[in-house]
Each structure stands twice: as structure tokens, then as C-alpha cells.
Design goal:
The complex is a heterodimer.
Chain A lengths: L2 E4 L4 E4 L4 E3 L1 E4 L6 E6 L5 E7 L5 E4 L2 E4 L9 E3 L8 E6 L1 E2 L2 E2 L5 E6 L1
Parallel strand pairs in A: 2-13
Antiparallel strand pairs in A: 1-4, 3-9, 5-6, 5-10, 7-8, 8-9, 10-13, 11-12
Chain B lengths: L4 E3 L2 E4 L5 E6 L6 E8 L3 E9 L2 E5 L6 E5 L5 E5 L8 E8 L10 E2 L3 E5 L1
Parallel strand pairs in B: 2-11
Antiparallel strand pairs in B: 1-3, 3-8, 4-5, 4-9, 5-6, 7-8, 9-10, 9-11
The chains are: A mainly beta, B mainly beta.
Chain lengths: 110, 115
């Protein structure tokens, strides 16, 4: 079945630094891929998604490209802000469910 | 605001007790999902309902049960509570039942503390 490997956190950065959170997956076929974000004290919300291979999802300055040749969906942002501090989940589907795991905690300091 | 509501926000109870968590999905969404989030296990999928019927099951204990009512709200029942059941419980909804493509919208969660 499908599975995901996401880099462990916490990731600690200074404001305006470049962010990469790695995510690699195994999947049957080419399902849509998702990044969800959980801000402190809140539920998860969709950050971005890509529906097919080579698609790029983007939102709020974050980007991720669905790369079938490397089976990756790495999350990037050119310049992080303190308000980006949150937990980020790469979530590929596995059959009839999304696999969220423990996520990657990002802490951005001014 | 995702449009998904959950009540109560916080629940404190004792071991052996039974509680009910309630979720109202976004208007028009037919699918409801329940998740448990704990520090050591991360976010674990429990169960999914679609238009009143159970569609998928995850790591849900036998002491836990859920249902979705004709008005599409859902309840998660947790019984014979143990200390280890203390966690955040999230409800999410989506328009349809295609997990592989649908966006899930999460509620703010119910924090359960079992003493």
C-alpha cells in the first residue's frame, strides 16, 4: 500500500530563511498528494495539493512539485515568517484513507 | 473558519466513563472522518462515514463507535475510557468520498482528558 516518509522535526529557522521539508512516498498509480498545516491550537487545514505528476501546488508562498521520477513532494518556501510556525503534514492517500503521521514541526524565530 | 464544528472543546472525565463527541460537517459535505491525535502516535485515522453509512475503518478500538445521522452530523462514542485515550479528537468533512482527491476540512477538535 501507499506510505510516506517525512523529515523529522523540529525544523528551526530564522525569519526570511529558505525552507524545505522533504516528503517521499510510495504509491500505487499517481494519486493526488496533499500538504496540510496545523497552526498552534487549531485543526489541520489544507495548505496545497497536486493532482497529477509534475503538477505544482502553491499557496501562501509555499510550493511543492509532484515528482514521479523521485516519488517526492517536497514543501518549499523562499522566505519564512514567524507566522509560519506550525506542524506540516505530507499526506498521500492509502486506499480509502489519508496517511498523516506525526508531521514536521517548524519553528521560526525573529 | 473551516465550517466544521465540534463540541465540546474540552472534556475532562474519569477512567471507565463514557463520553460522546459531536461533529457538524460543512454545509453540503457528505463525508465525515474522525481522527485521534496524540503526541506519540501523531494523527491517526479512526473511521469515515458517507451519507449515513460507514465507509472506511482505521485504527479504531472496539470501545469506540461512531455514527452519522440523517442530518449528516456525526457522533463519536468512547466508552470504558482509559488514561491512554487522552488525546485531541478531530472531525473532518469532505464533499464526496474520494479520499484520493477530495480536500478534507477539519474542525477545531475536542481535547479529551481522562483522569
Amino acid at each position: 500500500g501507499n506510505s510516506v516518509t517525512q523529515m523529522e522535526g523540529p525544523v528551526t529557522l530564522s525569519e526570511e530563511a529558505f525552507l524545505t521539508i522533504n516528503c517521499t512516498y510510495t504509491a500505487t498509480g499517481y494519486p493526488s498528494l496533499f500538504w496540510y498545516v496545523q497552526y498552534p491550537g487549531e485543526g489541520l487545514q489544507l495548505l496545497l495539493k497536486a493532482t497529477k505528476a509534475d503538477d505544482k501546488g502553491s499557496n501562501k508562498g509555499f510550493e511543492a512539485t509532484y515528482r514521479k521520477e523521485t516519488t517526492s513532494f517536497h514543501l518549499e518556501k523562499g522566505s519564512v515568517q514567524v507566522s509560519d510556525s506550525a506542524v506540516y503534514f505530507c499526506a498521500p492517500p492509502r486506499g480509502d484513507k489519508l496517511i498523516f503521521g506525526t508531521g514536521t514541526r517548524l519553528q521560526v524565530f525573529p | 473558519d473551516s465550517g466544521v464544528t465540534q463540541t465540546p472543546k474540552h472534556l475532562i472525565t474519569a477512567t471507565g466513563q463514557r463520553v460522546t463527541l459531536r461533529c457538524s460537517p460543512r454545509s453540503g459535505d457528505l463525508s465525515v472522518y474522525w481522527y485521534q491525535q496524540s503526541l506519540d502516535q501523531g494523527l491517526q485515522f479512526l473511521i469515515q462515514y458517507y451519507n449515513g453509512e460507514e465507509r472506511a475503518k482505521g485504527n479504531i478500538l472496539e470501545r469506540f463507535s461512531a455514527q452519522q445521522f440523517p442530518d449528516l452530523h456525526s457522533e463519536l462514542n468512547l466508552s470504558s475510557l482509559e488514561l491512554g485515550d487522552s488525546a485531541l479528537y478531530f472531525c473532518a468533512s469532505s464533499a464526496d468520498l474520494k479520499v484520493s482527491t477530495d480536500t478534507q476540512y477539519f474542525g477545531p477538535g475536542t481535547r479529551l482528558t481522562v483522569l
